[in-house]
Amino acid sequence: MNIYKIISYQVADFIDIKSIKPVIDASLIYKDSSELFYQAVGGRYLYIFRYGVVSFFNYKPEEISSFFEFLTPYCKNFFPENFTDELLVETNAAQSKISHNKIEIESETPQVLRMIMLNVSQSVTLDYYSFQTEKLLEETNYHTQLLEKKGRLAISGTKLKKFIGKTLLLKNRIAENLYIFDSPPETWEDEQLDRLHNELKKKF
Predict the structure, then answer these.
(1) For the chain, what is the domain count?
(2) Boundaries of domain holding 86
């Protein structure tokens, strides 16, 4: 049995996967309009999402740092501090099992690893948008409490327009990316993948 690490990062608001696709030196296993899933040498896997997330399986920290330098030009609003989530994966287990910070799997297939990496990536995205929403709610509550107490807003003009714009932008980004929580098409035809996906959703 072997233990590996999956780690996912919310690195930006957007990654141009159409432009980055032809310049990645790895075998492309799965693609659609919003995702690229690669198998690299040395038993490594790389998952890139249009909504700003990158997930790594069996990558060393220095390899991840090097990839981020390569990735930055393809990102919109690259974050200096990333949101992360991670999970240990134990392969060749007697039976599949999910615990607090580890998943045990019987077979180390690309399809199974992709499903796990997908769920870790969805988790970090959910954390990111939850954080952004909480910040915005705190700011909104501050202004509405002042409005209640003093009968006027302490923000006006350009600042008020920027605040409204920030609120609408976050709302639009969340609406655009709601699709990421849909069950992948593969789970409709593969009972094992569907069971794994549902268990991971419960965990995250």
Answers:
(1) 1
(2) 1-204
